[in-house]
Amino acid sequence: MTATACTACGGTRLLPFYRVEAIPVHSCLLVDTREAALAFPKRDLELAFCEDCGFIFNRLFDPTVLDYSPDYEETQGFSPRFRRFLETLCDELAERHDLRGKTVLEIGCGKGEFLVALCERAGCRGIGIDPAYRPERTASPAMDRLTFIRDLYGTDYLHLAADADHVCCRHTLEHIPDVSGFLGLVRRGIGERRGVSLFFELPDMERILVEQAFWDIYYEHCNYFTAGSLASAFRRAGFRVTRQWKAYDGQYLMLEAEPAAASFGSSGDVARTREQVARFTAGIAARLAQLRGEAEAWRRAGKTVALWGSGSKAVGYLTTLGLEDEVAAVVDINPFKRGKHLAGTGHAIVGPDDLSGLRPDVVVVMNPIYVEEIAAELRRRGLAPEVTALT
């Protein structure tokens, strides 16, 4: 079904601008066999820009095809670079919101790494909720202050927000089709209590548009926010935005808020986003052709190519470009992914040590922020391929 109204503000002035057909409905589910990966369910995606609030969403999104189970493997916690980011973020939030001795609710906690680190470093209590949580993966001296619930956040869990001093939600809002409904649930759970703080983190759509980073557009993400459209959604839901910034080399959009009266009106960046959408639309075909040509040139030259990073970026890169045997291997440092297969393309996921036998000529790094640590891993194994990053 094609949505005819904005899922953030209800506006009907929608501008469709980017379509990809038959892409996997999940990018992070662990798939056991190549056959199952090739047969993985697929759907079409069409991004639409709301002329009223600046929000961008997949207007063909069907939430019934998704399965956020314990087989969903989203963690980035095996990267030293990412762990440093997470620890610094925990320390900043703990200090800014004086979290010691308080209760923190994390909606969409994944495997729990962030909440565990926050409770360990801030001395707070933590409640995490996520259907993909795996209890056997959590070991912490703060376990007596941690509670995890393996479920989706909904009306049955309003009491969790009612008891929390701080509510955080990282890389989850982009997966939730009813933006206003979800934020309304959080606001309803908090009620009229004052002194409650919120922290949300999600991908920054402005960067995706400006860089034409199509590999960051995939089916699981039904929502794409700029700073303005995100702030507008929070204000409509009854929150006052207290701080916004970008982090992780500008890849992540961060927002802090507190309960307030609802206020309406469009975001301040609608016109700028409209221009960015126009430039993205005008240039994306050439961008796709350029990267397809690059992969074809490697193939013609007989070069062995490996991708480093088996997450959503890899699935988006491979499926959108239609690459198959142009890529010999997909590498990941997450041991839980090894021996599994990428949804849609069927590529087997291998570990860094497997590259010693493959000896790739080219390693394509899915996220440029990891180039330095990946280059170090390659050197450690006596490998010196050309290393190039998606930018």
Features:
7-stranded mixed sheet, 391 residues, 5-stranded parallel sheet, MeTrfase_14, methyltransferase, Rossmann fold
Could you explain the architecture of this structure?
This protein is globular. Helix content is 31%, strand content 22%. It contains eleven helices and 16 strands. The protein has helices at 34-38, 80-97, 113-122, 158-162, 179-190, 205-211, 227-236, 270-300, 312-321, 355-358, 371-380; strands at 14-24, 42-50, 56-58, 103-107, 125-129, 146-149, 166-170, 197-203, 223-224, 239-247, 252-259, 305-308, 329-331, 349-350, 362-365, 386-389.
| Terminus-to-terminus distance | 33 Å
Poorly predicted runs: none
CATH topology of the domain at 292-389: Rossmann fold
Shape: globular
Fraction of residues in helix: 25-40%
Please report the first level of CATH classification, the CATH class of the domain at 292-389: Alpha Beta
Characterize the biggest β-sheet. 7 strands, mixed
CATH superfamily of the domain at 292-389: NAD(P)-binding Rossmann-like Domain
Could you say which structural class the secondary elements and strand pairing correspond to? alpha/beta
GO molecular function: methyltransferase activity
Domain C-methyltransferase: 274-379
Keywords: Methyltransferase, Transferase
Protein name: Class I SAM-dependent methyltransferase
